[in-house]
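Quick note —
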Amino acid sequence: MIKLIRAGLTALGIMLLASGSSVPALAQTNATPGLTELRIGGFPGLPAAQIYVGQDLGIFKKYGLEVTYTPLASGAVAATAVLAGSLDLGLIDAAALGAAHLHNLPLLYVAPGPMDTDRAPAITMMVKPDSPLRTGKDFNGKTVGCTAIKGMGTVAFAAWMDANGGDSKTLKLIEFPVQQTIAAVANGTLDAGLTVEPFVTNGITSGQVRAIVLLKGGLRDFMLTGWAGDSAWLNNNAQTIAKFRAAVKEAGAIANQRPMRADVAAVIAKYTKMPVSLVSSLQYFTDFGDKLEARQIQPVIDASAKYGLIDKSFPATDVMFK
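Predicted structure written out below.
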């Protein structure tokens, strides 16, 4: 069973770490004889599906690894934990990792995590079924709900809106709990709302909303988050990293199969507490990357700089473990 340790971390942020703030250590465990212990952490739920599959289907053990997974609130928290030595690897978005890089903090990507693809768009805009909102220009001046005003969801939507005749500077963004977004759109509190699965499928099947998938223009086929570690630790543990890359590649390929395998649906339902029937019916279940590629990271870095999540752009290869 995967060990879901509750982090003793708070959202200190990368800049606090850079200024010398300490991060509480996570609980330590002893690896099974013959296996290499690997402490990793990131978002809970569907973004961690490749890890749940890798653990419960024996893939990590096959590659000689014993994985301890810690659910964390954000990429910034994961970055802080990795840099403090509390985790070996963290699931970190390009904006958080970019901020670390621009402040000379040694985080490097080693493997891809969840992707945004045409088949499985990670970020979806929800509107009323009869809403006239359809393309970028229709959203000028509209009130849109999001989980974070400066987050990857709003960056991806702004890029799509600007590429489709709109002006994202006119948006009225409101931070809204993701669990309440569908209802707020349905009752007219919001003109539209950015949300993720399983809320997308629940909203559509209930008839409360319809989805606008951000496919034309803007960000497409990009790495939403990736696995990253401290460069010094990575250089000292190259064999472990090679095993981890192989394991998450295999686990991700299994999780990516459609229709979803019954054993995969059961594993994901176990950790997300969703009914197996819902897991199997998700319209946009997460896709996981096959290998780390600069072309799937660079657009996120560029957009993060353009829309103010980081100070400036830089080559994606600067944050990729060689």
